[in-house]
Amino acid sequence: MRYKLICCDVFCREVYEALLKSSNNIFVVFTMKMSHENPAGLRETIQREIDNTDPDLFSHILLGYGLCGNAVVGLRTGRVPFVIPRAHDCCTILLGSKQAYREHFSHRPSCRWTSGGYMQYGDNYMRNSEVHKFLGIDMSFEELAEKYGEENARYIIETLSPKDDSDKLVVYIETPPYQKLDTKKTVEDEARKEGRIFECIPGNTRLIEMLVNGQWNEDEFLIVPPYHIIEGVYDDEIIMKAIPAESRL
What we know:
By secondary structure, this protein is of the alpha/beta class. The protein has helices at 12-21, 39-51, 90-95, 98-105, 116-119, 131-134, 141-148, 150-160, 183-193, 206-213; strands spanning 2-8, 25-31, 60-64, 82-85, 112-115, 127-128, 169-174, 197-202, 221-224, 228-232, 240-244.
């Protein structure tokens, strides 16, 4: 099969390793890893690549992103369908499943984390695992109260507030391509200097491998048919869905 992969370059090494083992013919376009800081700009970049995809050359477009601050919400297919992991952000993709994300991060929403991909180019960039952002409710108490009512707003804030020392923790997600590099030690040394607790957890590239190999089960991937649009669901399972583009006109 011939696919076009549009992907954040935080997965660059993981993607190249997966492509070396894949029997599919895949053309790759990477976007810069910090693009998610401007979700609207990232959405425009991805949509431009989608619109520039020749339907006579590619059967599917593969998207190497999660919701990523709603950057993928509103993306539209043309004649070529696209496939995207059901993930809130890159943390789930680096861990290999929604279940692994819940196991490691659902109980510590303020924890800082990073990976080899974020560390490459010597940038030492850390991410915050902020569940309220992943779920699309990055709002003040007043905004939450206006939308959900004061009682529900208090419940949301209380639920998402750290109940342990997770805000002092730095987690390094180690995927196979970085096991022989010094990125883990760099993160650990930096955490110690800041007086933080360091933890390394194993990453898993299964979602990336399944994406490029065409193994798209409904539980873990959303296949967006031609002339449809991505809409956020913001739960722990479906996360996003496809609706007819004409319904947004």
